Amino acid sequence: MSPEAIGFALLLIGVVLLAAKLVRVRWKLAQRLFLPSSIIGGGIALLLGPDVFGRVASALGTDRFAEGGLWGGGVLEVWSALPGLLISVVFAGLFLGRRIPNVREAGRLAGPQITLGFAFSSGQYVVGLLLALLVLGPVFGLPPLTGALIEIGFEGGHGTAAGLSGTFAQAGFPEGEDLALGMATIGLLTGIVAGVILINWGVRTGRTAELSASAEPSVTERMGVVERENRTAAATLTVHPSSVEPLALHFGLLAIAVLIGQLLLWGLQALEAALWADTVELFAYVPLFPLAMIGGIAMQVVLDRTDRLQVVDRQMVERIQGFSLDVLVVSALGTLSLQVLAANFVPFVLLALVGVVYCIAVFVFLAPRMLPDYWFERGIGDLGQSLGVTATGLILMRVADPELRTPAYPAFGYKQLILEPFFGGGLVTAAAIPLILQFGAVPLLVVMAVLLAASLLLGLLYFGRRRGPAGAAAPRT
């Protein structure tokens, strides 16, 4: 493929994102659901692709668009390669520019939040693997790998689902990527819709500590536009552009983090090939992005000791991550195969239904009993993340706690430092498929069940009994 074709495919993503933003500004339903423009753009790309536009054109008598829809096969080929590349950039920057807290500090501030987060994550594996072993395998002939799709799609999101495409292909289950992307879309939409419904329920029944019944997001907030008087800098210039462009400097730091991850992956694969590949093979299936996250942590540890001038700006890193994630989501959804979802419609619906019911049940019945204070504001963020992505949780917390008066945000942030290295695209998410391939689904199910039980016991019997403000933590269910 020519460089011009690759460049054209990338430019089209920019056009799609701009069109999606205009849709968000004009479409009231998208505003009420707080749909990200990347999701809208991915939907536009999908509708104009071969499975929708191409089929409509074929029905009207022309096969010109059968291969690549309006975009063409070459554009879709470029788009299909982007998620696996960009997810490493996103994960490499998770901890870059943040002070790495010690375990004791993070546990003291966010211990209850961590136990709830692990209950959401490990429980998604438990219910998913049980469904795969008892129903999806015996009835529909699907492999045990389908049991991991709930956590990959819900907790991991579109980026993780797309980033595992190579792992699914190597495992002989390439349709797993499309199913996981479909799960991520269902989870994101359900997370926002169910979250808003639950917030309204919490306000009416007095379960929210800060939000009153009259609170309502402004019109500009629903449109996704920041009011002029509330606008702040998206990043800070920490180096003079005459020496190096700050964006280029931070991209270079992310690039080093990704390269560290790649070297780690190559080293682990070489070690495995030399010592135990004949009996157990795991690292051959592990994708790059969790190792890129470790590379970012290693970079930050070094920077904590050497960056005396504080040239690393966290907001600049987040801008690069946000750009990468937007492009990733559009390209991933634009290359989603609707034929795979149609062929596995009933199993897909069962997985989505079980996952959604489990997550909502954890929030309604367990969060009030596991979180010692402000359970609604703190729990709604975890619910949003467990169904969608971190941004979904932040949106719901912002709606439930618009003035940021509760400890929901700092507790959520510290929980991320503990949870993300393992779940939601971390090491456990990346290793789940290789582990199932090598040892079967039952051992992973047992491990996740033990982790779930430990989280529940610690949350219910220890943290849940440390009640905070009166009325904020009362388990009214």
UniProtKB/TrEMBL annotation:
One of its GO terms (cellular component) is membrane. The chain crosses the membrane at residues 6-23, 35-58, 78-97, 118-140, 179-203, 247-270, 282-303, 323-342, 348-368, 417-437, 443-463. GO terms for biological process: L-glutamate transmembrane transport. The keyword S-adenosyl-L-methionine does not apply. Signal peptide: none annotated. GO terms for molecular function: glutamate:sodium symporter activity. Keywords: Membrane, Transmembrane, Transmembrane helix. This is ESS family glutamate:Na+ symporter. It comes from Streptomonospora salina. The lineage of its organism: Bacteria, Bacillati, Actinomycetota, Actinomycetes, Streptosporangiales.
